[in-house]
Specification:
single chain; 510 residues; alpha/beta; Rossmann fold; 3 domains; five-stranded parallel sheet; three-stranded antiparallel sheet; flat
């Protein structure tokens, strides 16, 4: 029975993709032990042959673009007969040697970019960008070699022309090859037959996705379930995996969790016995794991269900913008701050600046600086006023706060009192845009869920300030802070900053 099935499976795999998936590791538990290594060796040899053909195509493209680049630079200076004679000269041989070197460098760079395989999930745009990286690196290495060798005969303009021509040439034939492969897959040629183990929500979702994306090269022939059902697509139970797989010429098993671990071990044993590729789809936790990255940490596969709100590159760009804007803002506003500091001292007793602890990213405390807008002992009076707090939750706010001075009320209206916080932005404790920093006593009244707003740096302005500043609900404040964190982008920061300007001019502060 197995000998009758094997040729069909081999043919299907040979038609499927550029390189077939590797054989399941380990010695087989069933019959046909001699056939396994031989087939694996043939598959590896075929994969290497295809990759060698792809590399040869790249070499031909590089040499052809080299000739075109040379003719584009010098061709108009010679007649056709003179051009033919030129290819026999010493200079032509030097150019040929350099372009052979260029071709070798480009092949190595393409290998480093994994460009001699065709993963079906890779888009044409992604592949073109990878080709551009390989061409840029190979060209830079060639230019460095020419410079170090001191060669004066090779035109730098010819090298530049060749680099410009190589990108469309190398990405063009790859795009054509990819389109041909995908058309064959969509037409049903060379598809790998798949048996899905498990008919739960995840199993059905996987099967539906494979059927809707046939260009990935899979055809779902049915399911296995823990018990027999009337569903015609359920071809048997878990114990029937061997007979069902052989009868339906199955190439791969997809196990969808959750399934009892003993069943998984049994499936692995049976897959080895009849030499089936076996893949396990991890539990996606009711959709939380959909599209989440999976990577190796040591020898352990890790699924990242949630990552930091702002990526590292985004944080670096955001920090750079914060630093430049804060530095320029402080330099421009320095004369205004000096004048206001004098007016504050004349208006009421106490220092011109109010410095107090605030809670920043990850609960880190920092000294926040503002122009003083309240009486000197405002913090002591605050606890006495908590009974008439107009904000629900830990956030304290009064519409007509008796602690605010006459000048302070005007400064708050225009939000001028917050200009000194540019110093906190400059020092990295705050950002231009983010959740407002709360005092320590308010922070100590947070619920556990409220701590999520501390995933990012606090900001001078934020989504709440420009959309719902007059809303007394702390829940609204929290919801907008979390919306900002979860949907962050540089474009969102820019929109908040642009909306802050009219909000300040409308004197909405209090």
């Amino acid at each position: 029975m197995m000998e009758r099935v094997r040729p069909g499976r081999s043919t299907a795999r040979a038609r499927g993709a550029d390189t077939a998936p590797p054989e399941f590791a380990g010695e087989p538990l069933g019959g046909g032990a001699a056939a396994g290594p031989a087939r694996a060796a043939k598959r590896v040899a075929r994969g290497l042959t295809i990759q060698a053909v792809y590399a040869a195509l790249d070499v031909c493209c590089v040499l052809a673009t080299g000739v075109v680049a040379y003719l584009a630079r010098f061709g108009e200076q010679y007649t056709l007969q003179a051009q033919v004679r030129f290819f026999k000269t010493q200079t032509a041989h030097e150019y040929a040697g350099f372009f052979v070197l260029y071709a070798g460098l480009l092949v190595l760079c393409c290998v480093s970019q994994n460009l001699y395989q065709t993963p079906r999930e890779r888009s044409t745009l992604d592949e073109t960008l990878m080709v551009m990286k390989a061409v840029a690196l190979a060209t830079a290495l060639l230019a460095l070699f020419i410079f170090v060798s001191g060669n004066k005969q090779i035109s730098r303009l010819v090298i530049c022309w060749a680099a410009l021509l190589n990108t469309p040439a190398l990405s063009g034939w790859r795009a054509a090859k990819r389109e041909w492969i995908l058309r064959r897959a969509k037409a049903g040629t060379g598809l790998l037959r798949v048996l899905v183990v498990g008919t739960g929500r995840l199993g059905r979702a996987v099967a539906r996705w494979l059927e809707e994306n046939r260009h990935f090269g899979y055809e779902v022939c049915g399911f296995l379930d823990s018990r027999r059902t009337d569903d015609p697509r359920v071809l048997g139970t878990f114990q029937d995996v061997r007979s069902v797989s052989l009868a339906n010429f199955v190439d791969e098993l997809f196990i969808t969790l959750p399934i009892d671990r003993e069943v998984v071990k049994y499936m692995v044993k049976e897959a080895r016995g009849i030499r089936l590729n076996l893949k396990v789809i991890p539990d996606l936790y009711d959709g939380l794991g959909w599209h989440c990255p999976l990577y190796m940490l040591g020898g352990f596969p890790v699924m990242e269900l949630h990552e930091q709100p702002i990526p590292v590159l985004g944080r670096a760009i955001k920090r750079m913008i914060d630093f430049v804007v804060a530095l320029c803002g402080l330099l421009i506003c320095a004369p205004l701050l000096a004048i206001l500091a004098g007016l504050i001292r004349l208006d009421s007793r106490g220092p011109a600046f109010y410095v107090a602890e605030r809670v920043g990213r990850k609960g880190k405390k920092f000294r926040c600086c503002k122009l003083r807008t309240m009486v000197a002992d405002a913090d002591e009076i605050k606890e006495k006023l908590r009974s008439i707090n107009q904000r629900r939750g830990p956030f304290f706010k009064l519409e007509l706060d008796p602690r605010v001075t006459r000048l302070g009320r005007w400064l708050r209206k225009l939000s001028i009192d917050e200009i000194p916080q540019l110093y906190n932005v400059l020092m990295g404790d705050m950002s231009l845009v983010g959740p407002r920093p709360h005092p320590v006593d308010d922070f100590e009244r947070y619920d556990v869920e409220d701590l999520r707003r501390l995933d990012v740096k606090p900001g001078l302005t934020g989504l709440w300030q420009v959309t719902a500043r007059s809303d007394p609900s702390f829940e609204t404040n929290m919801a907008l802070d979390l919306e900002y964190i979860e949907t962050w982008s540089l474009w969102l920061d820019l929109k908040v900053l642009l909306k802050t300007v009219p909000a300040v001019l409308r004197a909405e502060g209090n």
